[in-house]
Amino acid sequence: AQTPVKVTVTGAAGQIGYALLFRIASGQLLGADVPVTLSLLEIPQAVKAAEGTAMELDDCAFPLLRGIEITDDPNVAFDGANVALLVGAMPRKAGMERGDLLEANGGIFGPQGKAINDHAADDIRVLVVGNPANTNALIAQQHAPDVPAERFTAMTRLDHNRALSQLAAKLQVPVTEIKKMTIWGNHSATQYPDLFHTEVGGKIAAELVDEAWLRDTFIPTVAKRGAAIIEARGASSAASAANAAIDHVYDWVNGTEWTSAAIPSDGSYGVPEGLISSFPVVSRNGKWEIVQGLEIDAFSRERIDASVRELEEERDAVRQLGLI
Ligand code: NAI
């Protein structure tokens, strides 16, 4: 029998966790023929709630689910882990300065990175969902010097999927007609959804829409969709975030044509090496590769640079705080 893949989920008792765990256990994360064990990491106060979710997972009798472990100790949670979904994070509270937010998250992602370094399986792949996702991923990576740097990624797939759906609605086409969508930069309001390489029925998307819509409606709608969901739902996006995490890991492991992911920069497109920034990517042989050779016009350049500058500022702030 095939050895189960160990998938560790942090923040397992949270709302994304609740939307995510059942899909992992049903085979959607890795494939319908891959058995999994789940390791749920929570803070002590939320372990009981995670146990409740585990009871429900039991009650689904998922054929692929070979075990569930629940712990508040990262060293246990990441022991032998093949996939780590870092969802639990410290949310920004009213009046919180960026430095406070980064510091609180440094206290979470530093130790988790070290636990991954010391205990995870050799093929560990990490996706950071918890915000500020790109910089949290950088913090975890910097505490895991023995793990290849490219195994630390952050999620911009939800932004990518939002961009696909906004464009599909505008052009009245199914999302499957849209190829080569790209999100650049930070998973934040500065992100840049780029339609200048996106193809719809063989035509460039930016040429199918007017510039005012692209600039004043499309870009801000995608970038601020998270806030719009909170406004409408009274809670932040959870099922769609879980869905995007599933898409990211599935494609990373199984390969994909053009999508978006935040991965460590190799210096491509002027993004400083080492920053975990969103790029157009493909996945081949279990590795993300940045799509090369795209022409970037002045409109895109300005927006990519602004988002990358924000990532540099976050990196400099966590450096100054001694978090990396
Ligand atoms: P939530 O508040 O419902 O759940 C977070 C869970 O993390 C809680 O159960 C909490 O106890 C746990 N947690 C906190 N610190 C922890 C630690 N040190 N170790 C383990 N668990 C810990 O939040 P929700 O809605 O599930 O969102 C989680 C994160 O995902 C947030 O940071 C949110 O901003 C982010 N997010 C990211 C998106 C993206 O596109 N990258 C999209 C949507 C949300």
What's the short story on this structure?
The protein has 324 residues and is α/β, with parallel strands linked by helices.
Biggest sheet overview: 6 strands, parallel
Radius of gyration: 19 Å
Strand runs, count: 14
Our estimate of the beta-strand percent is 15-25%
User: How would you spell out the order of helices and strands?
Assistant: EHEHEHEHEHEHEEEEEHHHEEEH
| Category from helices, strands and their pairing | alpha/beta
How much helix is in the residues?
40-55%
What form results from the Cα inertia axes? globular
Low-pLDDT stretches are: none
Number of DSSP helices?
10
Separation of the first and last Cα atoms: 41 Å
Give the averaged pLDDT, no decimals: 97
Architecture overview:
The chain is α/β, with parallel strands linked by helices and 324 residues long. It is 42% helix and 20% strand. Helix 1 packs across helix 9 (239-254), helix 5 packs across helix 10 and helix 6 (157-171) packs antiparallel against helix 7 (211-223). The longest helix has 23 residues, at 298-320. The model has no long low-confidence stretch (mean pLDDT 97). It binds 1,4-dihydronicotinamide adenine dinucleotide. 1,4-dihydronicotinamide adenine dinucleotide (NAI) binds at residues 10-11, 13-17, 41-43, 46, 87-89, 91, 108, 129-131, 133, 155, 158, 187, 236-238, 241. 1,4-dihydronicotinamide adenine dinucleotide binds next to helix 1.
